Structure formats: C-alpha cells, structure tokens
Amino acid sequence: MRRLFTWPRLLLLVLLIAIGGLLHAAWPFLFYPTTTLSFDIPAPRPATIQNGNLAGVAEVDITPAIGLPKFGYSAWARGANGFRTRLKARAFYLHGAGQTPMALVQLDLGAGSLPLQYAVAERIATTTDIPAHALSLLVTHTHSGPGQYLGSDFYNVFGSQSPGFDPVLFDFLAERISQAVIEAYRARRPARFASGQSEVWGLTRNRSLGAWARNHRLPEQQWTEERALEAVNPRMSQLRIDLMADDGRYYPAGALTLFSIHGTAIPAFTRPYHADVWHWLAQGIEPAGKPLPWRFVHGTVQATHGDNNPAWTAGLRGDREARRIGTALGGQANALFQRLGNELRDDLHTAVASRELDLLTLDEEQRHGLCERPVVGAAVAGAANGDEVFPISYLPYLKEGWPRTVFTDGCQGVKQWMLSKLQLALAPARYPHRALFQVLRVNDLVLVALPWEITLESGNRIRAAVSATLPDPDWSVVISSLANGYFGYATTEEEYGAQYYEGGHTLYGPHTVDFLSAQSARLSDDLFQKGNQNQHPGHATFVLRSHRYWPEPPPERTWSRQWQGEARYSEGDTTHEPYWRWRFRGEPAAALPLHQPLMAVVDEASGKVLVDDDSGDLQLLLVEDQGLGGALYEVRWYTPPKPGHSGDRALHILAGAAPRLVSPIF
C-alpha cells in the first residue's frame, strides 16, 4: 500500500506552511492602505496669573465599540464582545503659582501612544494652558483593552490578533481623553497636596525568576515560590489632591497611585473589555467626609511591572482573582490615602522636562550601547510565564531559556532572531523608534515616564541613576512604564542573557537599560540644574498601515427591545462569581455606545439605583449580531444577593438608540 506521507511530502507541507505564515505576516505591511497623521500643535492659552496653587480632576469613559481587536496577548487575544468593567481616562491638572501647568492622565489601555499624545496635546491647546511637553499619558497596561492606536506598524500588526491602525478608534480615544483633560482644567480650584509611599507584599510575584536571579547570581535551587513573591517591586506611590469647595473647606478630590503589577489577571482568549485588577484598585479609596461636593477620582498606573505578575491562585485565574487581588490593592491604597490626609500641604512645586529622541538617528555617544536597529527575539513567540500555549511555548528555539550560543558577537548578542535574517526585510522605521522621555516633579515626587515595559531590576538601576542627579536625598523617584508610547521591554544585560520572554522582547539589545539610565539621568540633571526642559517637537507626521475595525454606524432610527426569557441565577464557577442573567433583543452592536451609561439595577419602590454599570458588577455581552436585524445581548449581575431576597428590583436597559427596557421584578 502506498504511503500517504513520505519525507519529501512532509518537507513540502512544512515549506508551504512556512511560506503561508510569512505571507500572512507580511501582507499588512505590503498591501494595507496608509493613514497619515500630521500634527502641528499650537501654543496653549496663556497660563493664569494666580497667587495660590490650583488643581483639577476629571474622569471620562473610553470604552470603545464592540468588535475591536484587543491588545496585549497578540494572536491569542479575541475581539471584544462587550465589557465586564468599563475603561476610563482620569485626568489630573496641576498648576503651581508661576510654574508650568501640567496634566497627568491615567488611561485604562494596554500601552501609551506617541501620536495619541500629540493628538490630545493638539486638541487641548486652544482650550487649556497645558503645553504639549507637560502632558503625560500614563497607562494601566490592561491586556483586555483595544489595540490598533499605537505609533508603529510593528505593534499595530502584531500587538493584537488582527493587524492595522484603526483611525476611527484613534479619533475616539483622542477626543475622549482630551475631554477628560479639558474637564479637569475647567474644574481647577485651590488645592492641597500630599505624596508618599508604602509597601505591599503577597499580591505580586516574579514570573521570570530564572532571568531575575542572574542579576544576583542565585543558584537554581534558590528559585523558589517564596523567592518569586520577594522578587517584586513592593512600592505603592501616591499623590493625594484635596480641593477647596464653595464653602471654603477642603475635601478629598483625587489620587494618583502607581504600582508594579501586570494587567494579566484576566487571561488570553477572553473577550469582554476589562480594566483587570486596576478597576478594583481604582475603586478602593473611600474618602472620609462623604458626601463630597464632587465625584472622587482615583487614577492608577504602572510602575516597574515588566516581570511582576498578579499572584493569582493556581487554576483560578480570571474574574474572581482579578477582583480579589485588585480589592486587596485598593485596601492598601486606601490606607495610604488616609495616612496622607495628615500630611497635606498648601505649597506646590512642579517642574517638567520632556525630550523626544529618534533611536535610529542618535549619535554614537548618546546610544550607550543601544543597537542601531530593533530585532524581535524568538522567545516572544513562546510567550511569558503563565501565558504559555501548547505546543508553541515548549518548542526549542521558541521556549524561554534558549539563548544563541554561536554568532553572538553582534549587537543583539545571544538573542535568537525570530525568522532569522528574514527580519531584516522589515525596515527599522516600521518598529517603534521615536521615544518621548519625561521627568516630572510634583513636590518631593519625581516621576520618570518611559515608553518601555521595565523589569524590577531595570527599574532599580534607572531609579538609582536618576536619584544620583537630585540635589538632596529626600525624593521619591518613581518609574512609570509604557508612558506615551510602546517599545517592548527593557531588561538588564544579565536578564537579557537568559532570553526569557522579556529578554526576547527587548528590541534594541542587551544595553537598553544602560541607555535608559543614562538618558533619564541626563534629562533629570538638566531639569534640576537648568530648569524646565521643552524638547517636544510639537509637530510630527506618522504614516501607518491601516484597517478600520470600528463598526460602520447603522441608519439613524429608533430600534425596539424585547426580553428573551426570564431572569436566571447561576452559582458561578471557579473563575466567575455568582450572577443573575438576562437576555434581550435590541439595537445592532454598532448602535450601542459602550462609553455611555447603559444598565442599572433599580429598587422600583424607592427609585434607588442599587448597582450601575460603572461598578464592575454589571456585564454586557453580545451573543449574536444580525446587523440591521438587531442583536441579541446578555446582561449579568455579578455578586448579587442570593435568590429569595425580598425586594422590588428590576434591571433597566437605559434609553439610547432604543427606548428604556425594564425587566419584570425579580
């Protein structure tokens, strides 16, 4: 009998698969249309002359449309079919008397974006007094937010499960974030401030312990789980802001908290938008003296998280663990906030230095060993610890700890090149190469904002380099990863040598941290020796391969809604909490604005809202979309009272493109 598979046929099959894979990867770079973004940021409004110090805070929803690709898990991500928690932009406006106004903006996004920073700066210039160089976009690095808004073709293609820059999503984000900054500016009032730090242990662990251990030459027998829980950045840093109300008294208004934890408690292959642990952390502060004259705003952003994961319980990763870890972090943030209430002061001293560098055109003396072109390592395909996918993550060449042993004298050293020299066919300009460095001072807090994912030890070295430039030792230096852009990872030379996921994803080679340390220290030294530094060009052009994923709006009309069956209760499972479930037919997904209030559970007797969709307890899921024929949705109320609870509760689907729909009492 003739054999179906012979060695020549198997080799031919492997060759065809390889060619198909290469064509699939190359297709967007070759054939997608381009979108050109051009910016020429005007000067902002003149800063107000004032005697005291002003601050303002604001929060705006940035949850985008259903159906978009999601950033963070690359090919293992899935398109969004709704949301579990909303995504937010939280803006903090600061203006010390006679100083440069600044805006720190927290985003529930996977990474910053340099063109997004330009777009927001351009939109706010005519309305606020915030100059472009004093605007900083800081992120949570959730892996359950949208992609397709970044500043490089490389990450717009490979950062999500679908390729291409989405100009409609980009405009949506730019408009919503700008609205948050403008609202914070308009809400400015006399303010008091306090900043401080605490330590948090037991909620994070080092996911790449073998690579980290090389920094300290620890033998493998010491790579224990106990050590993984110790090899983390425990510092939680916070800026507290109280504002003066109309009655002349000061009340809590906002806080900005920085902590080192990956936004990965929600795993790959899940679909709803989710702010991950950061949602629960942001909800954790409970200001004293309620009711407040305004809505309290708590922004939460990354510090040096590159190898620090949430310490989820094995086998339970998902919604339950995201809530448990995030809630515990929120409790720690609340304790720090309450402590800072005793340290509030009226004075505000701010300063800002921004410098944009093109990594492809730097002089040799500015490179500090940085490679001339970026290269992605094969270990990136193997994925990070905790996100392995069988069998890819376990194959030689792709799995962690598989550094090159020959031909290691090039700039990229021991990195196994993904696709070998074929990677040279992708021009260096398609990778991220324009980086915005920022050093921002707020009283004794020095924030270093960098567009890399920075590991624990890398952060320690950058922090030490910056601290050495400061005039005295009483400063809190905090590094914030992924600010204003995305350049992959920054590992130490020792960690890079292990070629774990983080080392393979350090695009510009083993001396990336040397470069970041030197440039950050130089910028800090310039700030404290010479004063504010504005080396933000203010004008730029980005040409990006594009594809629209944002759904086309349906014809304007009033849609109908109908319940599909009765409310049902589910006990949940190991990763999901108990919930009530409803289904209804209504408008097409393209007509449903996820950034607006959509759902609430109401006590019909009193009219009191028991829970709304800002809480993280009401989830909306698209079950089936029939275009102009409407869509089927599912709503879940998580962690409700158990069945048998007496009351007059009803679920409300709020009016929008269709009239309000109210469920039967349950």
TrEMBL record:
<keyword id="KW-0378">Hydrolase</keyword>
<dbReference type="GO" id="GO:0042759">
    <property type="term" value="P:long-chain fatty acid biosynthetic process"/>
</dbReference>
<feature type="domain" description="Neutral/alkaline non-lysosomal ceramidase N-terminal">
    <location>
        <begin position="55"/>
        <end position="278"/>
    </location>
</feature>
<dbReference type="InterPro" id="IPR006823">
    <property type="entry name" value="Ceramidase_alk"/>
</dbReference>
<dbReference type="GO" id="GO:0017040">
    <property type="term" value="F:N-acylsphingosine amidohydrolase activity"/>
</dbReference>
<dbReference type="InterPro" id="IPR031329">
    <property type="entry name" value="NEUT/ALK_ceramidase_N"/>
</dbReference>
<dbReference type="GO" id="GO:0016020">
    <property type="term" value="C:membrane"/>
</dbReference>
<feature type="binding site">
    <location>
        <position position="262"/>
    </location>
    <ligand>
        <name>Zn(2+)</name>
    </ligand>
</feature>
<dbReference type="GO" id="GO:0005576">
    <property type="term" value="C:extracellular region"/>
</dbReference>
<keyword id="KW-0746">Sphingolipid metabolism</keyword>
<keyword id="KW-0443">Lipid metabolism</keyword>
<dbReference type="GO" id="GO:0046872">
    <property type="term" value="F:metal ion binding"/>
</dbReference>
<comment type="similarity">
    <text>Belongs to the neutral ceramidase family.</text>
</comment>
<protein>
    <recommendedName>
        <fullName>Neutral ceramidase</fullName>
        <ecNumber>3.5.1.23</ecNumber>
    </recommendedName>
</protein>
<feature type="domain" description="Neutral/alkaline non-lysosomal ceramidase N-terminal">
    <location>
        <begin position="409"/>
        <end position="514"/>
    </location>
</feature>
<feature type="binding site">
    <location>
        <position position="141"/>
    </location>
    <ligand>
        <name>Zn(2+)</name>
    </ligand>
</feature>
<dbReference type="Pfam" id="PF04734">
    <property type="entry name" value="Ceramidase_alk"/>
</dbReference>
<keyword id="KW-0862">Zinc</keyword>
<dbReference type="GO" id="GO:0046512">
    <property type="term" value="P:sphingosine biosynthetic process"/>
</dbReference>
<dbReference type="GO" id="GO:0046514">
    <property type="term" value="P:ceramide catabolic process"/>
</dbReference>
<keyword id="KW-0479">Metal-binding</keyword>
<feature type="binding site">
    <location>
        <position position="489"/>
    </location>
    <ligand>
        <name>Zn(2+)</name>
    </ligand>
</feature>
<feature type="binding site">
    <location>
        <position position="453"/>
    </location>
    <ligand>
        <name>Zn(2+)</name>
    </ligand>
</feature>
